[in-house]
Design goal:
This protein is mainly alpha-helical. The protein has a single domain (about 1-320), classed as Cytochrome P450 (Cytochrome p450), CATH 1.10.630.10. The chain is about 55% helix and about 10% strand. The protein has helices at about 1-5, 15-30, 30-50, 60-75, 85-100, 105-130, 135-145, 150-160, 165-180, 180-190, 195-205, 235-240, 275-290; strands spanning about 55-60, 210-215, 220, 225, 230-235, 295-300, 305, 310, 315-320. Helix 4 (about 60-75) runs antiparallel to helix 9, helix 5 packs across helix 6 and helix 9 crosses helix 13. The model has no long low-confidence stretch (mean pLDDT about 95). Bound molecules: protoporphyrin IX containing FE. Protoporphyrin IX containing FE binds near residues 161 and 208.
């Protein structure tokens, strides 16, 4: 990640991490999400649904969740000069690049092409934002005076982590509700909120199922000994279905208390985009989707894939157009 995308805040610890996290905070804060991003998310989602509504059928992943997620990310990062399709392409290109364990030169070349595209868009927007600052990630880091290499690396981090997860959660939660009509009825009849439907989906499926870590110092956790420099996987997907914490952990139950679940991680690196994602998915994408497309129903299988990153490959649906 550091070689291909630059050294970002996720790869730092202690004060070095906190400095960058604080600089980025104004772009991610619950207040900015409420006062600035929520309206932009709605505006973009209305347009996506306006185009979709007359069609009567679509793949929710490619035609709804993907553009909705990418438009949100264009706003949060400040890269309004990038199309939503390019946002999706560069995000995927970087994800493929950093998980290119076989060292395929084509994958690496594509990743370089994607980071070059981001850099070109960043350069153009930096010139504009210098005289007209705003609350975007690019602008707030510039205002805080972070070194340009860090500014660029953190924009790339947000793009690599901020596109596929909301996309997978929007399409996946819609699928979960459509395939569990009793749960959807809880929401429609006011016994549960869209927020609960979203949080329970994120617990049940864990869009990020695993976090890699290097052990910094020897320690014993729950009777297991860890030595310094060992590599470990934190299995979020397992924690979120811990049968000693969650009753019937394998079932999707929108009325359950999900307070102990950790789909956004925990500790200093807790997802910076959590507030934005909650608003995007639970206040905008899900309620607007079900309101705007009457009689929304599944129209085929939704194949899920991945475990480190998990989501549906496609969610075919139809509605009464
Ligand atoms: C439902 C959607 C999302 C999920 C499930 C999710 C999940 C996570 C998780 C588990 C981590 C912790 C990584 C670790 O500790 O190694 C993380 C970190 C992060 N996420 Fe998200 N994320 C989501 C959406 C977003 C969005 C939309 C953005 C940006 C616009 C974003 C930006 C970040 C950043 C910058 C970090 C690193 C924070 C740090 O190192 O201090 N995420 N995310």
């Amino acid at each position: 990640m550091s070689v291909l995308m630059g050294e970002n805040m996720m790869r730092k610890d202690g004060e070095a991490h906190q400095t960058e996290r604080r600089a980025a905070f104004p772009a991610f804060s619950p207040r900015t999400v409420r006062d600035v991003w929520a309206a932009r998310f709605r505006e973009a989602t209305v347009k996506v649904l306006d185009d979709l509504a007359p069609k009567g059928a679509c793949d929710l992943v490619a035609e709804f969740a993907m553009p909705v997620s990418a438009h949100a990310l264009r706003n949060i990062t400040g890269l309004l000069n990038m199309s939503w399709r390019e946002m999706d392409r560069v995000s995927q290109g970087m994800i493929d690049g950093i998980s290119n364990y076989l060292g395929d030169p084509e994958v690496e070349a594509r990743c370089h092409d994607c980071t070059a595209s981001i850099d070109a868009h960043v350069t153009e927007r930096m010139a504009e934002l210098a005289s007209a600052p705003d609350t975007s990630l690019l602008s707030v880091q510039m205002q805080a005076g972070l070194p340009e290499a860090s500014v660029r690396a953190n924009v790339k981090l947000a793009i690599s982590g901020g596109q596929n997860e909301p996309r997978d959660v929007i399409a996946g939660a819609a699928w979960a509700l459509l395939s569990h009509p009793g749960q959807l009825a809880h929401v429609h009849e006011g016994r549960a909120t869209w927020q609960q439907a979203f949080e329970e989906y994120a617990r049940w499926i864990s869009p990020i199922g695993m976090l890699p870590r290097r052990v910094a110092r020897a320690a014993e956790v729950c009777g297991v000994r860890f030595e310094s420099e060992e590599r470990v996987f934190l299995m979020i997907g397992s924690a979120n279905r811990d049968e000693t914490i969650f009753e019937n952990a394998d079932s999707y139950d929108v009325t359950r208390d999900t307070g102990a679940a950790i789909p956004f991680g925990a500790g200093p690196h807790f997802c910076a985009g959590a507030a934005a994602s909650r608003t995007l998915v639970a206040e905008v994408a899900l309620p607007m989707l079900f309101e705007r497309l009457p009689g929304l129903r599944l129209a085929g299988e939704a194949p899920f894939e991945g475990w480190a990153f998990r989501g549906p490959r496609a969610v075919p649906v139809a509605w009464d157009a």
